[in-house]
Amino acid sequence: MDSEQWDRRYAGSELVWTAQPNRFLVSEVSDLQPGRALDLACGEGRNTVWLAEQGWRARGVDFSSVAIEKARELAAAREVEADWEVADLSAYRPPAGAFDLVVVFYLQVPAAQRTPILAAAAAAVADGGTLLVVAHDLTNLDNGYGGPQDPTVLYRAEDVIADLADSGLMIERGERVERPVATDTGERVALDALVRARRG
Question: Which of 51, 61, 117, 140 could disulfide-link 144, Cβ–Cβ 3.0 to 4.6 Å?
Answer without folding.
Answer: 140
